[in-house]
Write a structure and sequence with these properties.
The chain is an alpha/beta fold and 641 residues long. Among the domains are: 242 residues, 3-Layer(aba) Sandwich (Rossmann fold); 162 residues, 2-Layer Sandwich (Transcription Regulator spoIIAA). Helices cover 36% and strands 14% of the residues. Helix 21 links the parallel strand 23 and strand 24.
């Protein structure tokens, strides 16, 4: 709980009173966000605010404005000198609000005390429309996850409809996609220099609306691609699938092309992204004066998302996994930008000096835990590559997957005064650890990293994500064969035995993913049972904009092969698949047995339940019990002789 006194001047102002305390009559930029204001580098609004502040601008933040009343939250600071910035927050608002079955969630991790109802559906659209009505002449720049992944025609699962790029629905002037520091800095600089809004049409990593007449007649060239129009996508799902493939391939290029998409008599001009940030540029962001705390206005309240990350450190950006259901590569890109070791150590020292820090770092990670400093052996090959994944269908031979720098960083962090233990809370790519490389030094580093990870950096439970057991489903997911997970599990168990540790491997699985049928889920249940797993970390596939899996869900086709792909769509179909995760619960047995008989898979009934009749199995009315996890000791485990 955050209840200690904090200097208000250390934060960006959020009220008129705070402006007056600083002696400000007007600010240059006002940022509206659907999240609580947490001045921590894990939250995009805080990062953008600090980046603009470092440019010498006066910046204010309005968190979770009330859009239902007389709109006083939108008026209280007046009009900014340069622009309004709008973000829905750290998550797409619809994922934040609703489950995969479109039921309202009971809490909001990004709101004080987890309270629901503090932001509307689609806050990017709602906030922008309000601001445009109140201040029609002030530019509005939208960004963040919700805007970034809805920048072109996209399928919206909650409306079950194809929507145009969010600039059209919101009425905003400019959209920044991806990690927006560089684009937002340039927008501010050019507006500050007196350039008119109409001139800001060529900034990398931005999207603007232009007259349709500006779209080139030539559909494709070395410098641009004209996508199928919004209207074409509405008429033809295959056109939407082709669009996605083009967008994903361009997003994964080092030097992408300019994209155009018509919508009525207007068009979207999607400027290519910036090259990946340099180490120095990323270090500069993390060296900004974040307090790493929620704003004092939340004193006495708990913000669940903050509690989860307040003692965590991000080591890198980007992910080259390219999983079909994940938005990370679409937002951050597949090229890894890592922080310097010195930058990470500076941040850890700041954390160690915090009054309530007890010596335990919750995470040294990133989008994937073990991609720090990884990249192509031959950078020129990476510059022309369009592969969406460097790990699927096989590890790229050009990938230099060296775990040695990460191992060294872990050890340097653990040497710092005040650090008792550093845990790895981010997901680990076990396929990077299991792969056998031509370079024996890489194999040795992977083995050493695996042992160090399991013996020194696991808080009793290690999270990994095999996601499924079916080879067909895993191929659709762009995930490795399940045998690699089984191999990693054997390694995990062996190391635990050798060091006398009692730790658990916690696998994540997804149901109802495209290509997954009920019999695939039944096999998953039987296979995981045979491995002594009673699954906990599971989820039903939720279609989110700009992922391969969502395009398959909507169109019914694989954008790369044109193959028709089955996907569970109704709530009953989804529930039937999800039920197999919990075969061990007495209340699910009757439905599972009925489903298995319907499929003609009585053999799986025996594999799951043996030959014992159901009544005898349930007669005691007891729920299965599972071993309690033990917290790992801070001391370095010693290998048993």
């Amino acid at each position: 709980m955050h209840d200690r006194s904090t200097d208000w001047q250390s934060f960006l102002p959020t009220t008129r009173k705070e402006l007056e305390q600083r002696g400000w009559e007007q600010v240059d930029v006002i940022l509206f966000t659907g999240d609580a204001y947490i001045d921590h580098p894990s939250f995009g609004t805080a990062v953008i605010a600090r980046v603009l502040e470092a440019e010498g601008l006066r910046v204010a933040v309005v968190p979770q404005p009330n859009w239902r009343d007389d709109l006083r939250d939108f008026k209280k600071l007046g009009a900014p000198r340069l622009f309004f910035g709008v973000s829905a927050g750290a998550m797409d608002s619809m994922v934040n609000h609703y489950t995969a079955n479109k039921r309202l969630r009971s809490d909001d991790a990004y709101t004080p005390d987890g309270r629901v109802g503090m932001r509307p559906d689609y806050p990017t659209i709602v906030y922008t429309r309000i601001l445009k009505e109140l201040y029609p002449d002030v530019p509005v720049v939208i960004g963040g996850i919700e805007a970034s992944l809805r920048r072109v025609t996209h399928y919206d699962y909650w409306q079950d409809a194809l929507r145009p790029g969010i600039l059209f629905d919101s009425g905003a002037d400019i959209l920044t996609y991806g990690m927006g520091e560089a684009a937002t800095r340039i927008i501010a600089s050019r507006l500050r220099a007196g350039e008119p809004l109409s001139a800001l049409r060529d900034i990398p990593q931005t999207v603007v609306v232009v007259p349709a007449g500006e779209v080139p007649a030539e559909r494709e060239s070395d410098t641009h691609v004209v996508l199928a129009s919004h209207e074409e996508c509405l008429r033809d799902k295959k056109a939407q699938a082709r669009n996605f493939r083009c967008i994903e391939e361009e997003s994964n290029r080092y030097s992408a092309r300019l994209l155009w998409q018509r919508c009525g008599d207007k068009a979207l001009k999607i400027n290519p992204p910036f090259p990946p940030m340099t180490e120095a540029e990323l270090d500069a962001v993390y060296d900004l004066p974040f307090t790493r705390l929620p704003h004092p206005r939340y004193r006495g309240k708990t913000i669940p998302a903050f509690e989860m990350i307040k003692f965590s450190v991000t080591l890198h950006r980007g992910c080259f996994g390219g999983c079909a259901f994940c938005t990370i590569s679409a937002h951050q890109g597949k090229f890894i930008t890592s922080r310097s070791e010195a930058s990470v150590l500076r941040e850890v020292k700041k954390i160690a000096a915090m009054p309530d820090f007890k010596g335990y770092l919750s995470d040294l990670g990133g989008p994937s835990a073990n991609m720090y400093r990884m990249g192509g052996k031959n950078p020129n090959a990476c510059r022309v590559c369009r592969r969406p994944s460097c790990l699927w269908p096989a590890v790229c031979p050009n990938l230099h997957a060296d775990h040695a720098p990460l191992l060294h960083l872990y050890r340097e962090v653990d040497k710092l005064p005040g650090i008792k233990k550093s845990f790895i809370g981010s997901g680990v790519r076990f396929d990077l650890l299991q792969h056998r490389y031509d370079d024996e030094a890489l194999n040795a580093a992977a083995r050493e990293y695996t042992e160090e990870l399991i013996t020194r950096h696991v808080s009793g439970r290690l999270k990994v994500a095999p996601e499924h057991t079916s080879a067909r489903v895993l191929a659709c997911m762009r995930k490795p064969d399940f045998r690699q997970f089984e191999q990693f599990r054997r390694t995990f168990d062996r190391i635990n035995r050798e060091y006398g540790l009692n730790q658990q491997l916690i696998p994540y699985f997804i149901s109802s993913h495209p290509a997954c049928r009920p019999d695939d889920m039944a096999e998953l249940a039987a296979i995981t049972k045979s491995l002594d797993f009673h699954l906990e970390q599971v989820q039903d596939f939720t279609p989110t904009p700009m992922t391969l899996a969502t395009e398959i869900y909507y169109t019914g086709f694989h954008p790369y092969t044109g193959e028709r792909i089955y996907t569970a769509r109704t709530q009953d179909e989804k529930l039937a698949q999800r039920r197999f995760f919990f075969w061990y619960k007495p209340e699910t047995r009757r439905e599972i047995e009925q489903e298995l008989r319907r499929m003609g898979r009585e053999d799986l009934i025996v594999r799951l339940y043996g030959n014992a009749p159901r009544k005898a199995w349930q007669s005691a009315g007891e729920k299965p019990t599972f071993p309690r996890r033990n917290a790992a000791s801070p001391a370095r485990p010693k290998k048993k002789k």
